[in-house]
Amino acid sequence: MPTTSRYARDVAVVAFAQSDHRRRSDELSEVEMVMPVLHQVLDQTGLKAGEIGFTCSGSSDYLAGRAFSFTMTLDGVGAWPPISESHVEMDGAWALYEAWVKIQTGEADTALVYAYGKSSPGSVRDVLTRQLDPYYLAPLWPDSVALAALQAQALIDAGETDEAGLAAIGARSRAAAGANPHAQLRGGGVAQGDYQVRPLRTGDCPPIGDGAAAVILAAGDTARRLCARPAWVTGIDHRIEAHGPGLRDLTDSPSTRIAAEHAGVFEAPVDTAELHAPFSSQEVVLRKALRLGGDGIAVNPSGGALAANPIMAAGLIRIGEAAARIHRGESDRAVAHATSGPCLQQNLVAVLEGEPA
Question: Which of 22, 14, 76, 21 lies closest to 43, judged by CA?
Fold first, then answer.
């Protein structure tokens, strides 16, 4: 381990795989979309599905349009002979947290975590309205882009950014995605486009698309056996803020900051930050909460959620991308972030570190 662990067991991300994220995948079921990713991540470690100690998935029945849809996706994992398995109706980053806890308890030494989402069949802006409280806000049907626009306008009114600054975030993210073969939008030539909801233009908003991702966690010497340079999870925490956006200061994210403090983000410099910021304005908020104002930090070198945003998998991808940079020797200490809910309501922060060469 690069530092003294604050936890009972040392746990690392030892493998990461993801699909090519596409605007539509009508020809594929969720099972057919997930299976190649599962095979890829297992092949990286040489493990068989039956050798995994715990399996946890993240997805949304709202996106699938049917209850307990995740049970069908287990066909892609192989649930016979019986496996130890769980599911969260959240982004896969929270499935990773559950798997990490399972390993901490000593009930497993390895865990397979996967997540997927098909956003193309319906209206994502309307589906996400179901995240709002059912009595006061949801009946008004403010969609996800409208709520993000309120946050963006609050930042502009506070003098923390402007429309040109937001456009620069989108352009930088998609230019960085030019080196990411899995990204849906790649290259700096993507137009900023018209207003979706003022002040957010098309370029400030995430693409709608389908995709899946998977990681494998392992403990201690098992991690070192499976991976040449494991990405050790030296800190992880998640926090939640008030459900109603009107009860919060939308220009700040105290839940992200508190999670970062408990995960140890501020104890040493980071060289990579993979931020789950589906809207350009949210990167402004997250940079402030995570104190990422300095030079020399690669922020969303994968392109981030502005380049590919498969709902329920985009947060897990942030952890996977940060881990992959450590595996390749391109990073030594990275922070990964995932969010859920309107205007950064729920936030998870993880610190990943590689052992010295």
Answer: 14
In the chain, the amino acid numbered 88 is V
Res. 2: pLDDT tops 60: no
In this prediction the pTM is 0.95
CB 111 within 8 A of CB 214: no
Question: Could you read off the pLDDT of 316-344 as tens digits, one per residue?
Answer: 999 999 999 999 999 999 999 999 999 99
How far apart CA 16 and CA 45 sit, in angstroms, is 10
Euclidean distance between CA atoms 101 and 82, whole angstroms: 21
- Distances in Å between the Cα of 242 and the Cα atoms of 133, 153, 154, 184, 338 are 11, 20, 17, 32, 17
Single-letter amino acid code for the residue at 89: E
- Per the listing, tokens 């499935």 go with 95
Give the 3-state DSSP-derived string for the chain, with helices as H, strands as E and coil as C: CCCCCCCCCCEEEEEEEECCCECCCCCCCHHHHHHHHHHHHHHHHCCCHHHCCEEEEECCHHHHCCCCCHHHHHHHHCCCCCCCEEEECCCHHHHHHHHHHHHHCCCCCEEEEEEEEECCCCCHHHHHHHHCCCCCCHHHCCCHHHHHHHHHHHHHHCCCCCHHHHHHHHHHHHHHHHHCCCCCCCCCCCCCCCEEECCEEHHHCCCCCEEEEEEEEEEHHHHHHHCCCCEEEEEEEEEECCCCHHHCCCCCCHHHHHHHHHHCHHHCCCCEEECCCCCHHHHHHHHHHCCCCCCCCEECCCCHHHCCCCCCCHHHHHHHHHHHHHHCCCCCEEEEEEEECCCCCEEEEEEEECCCC
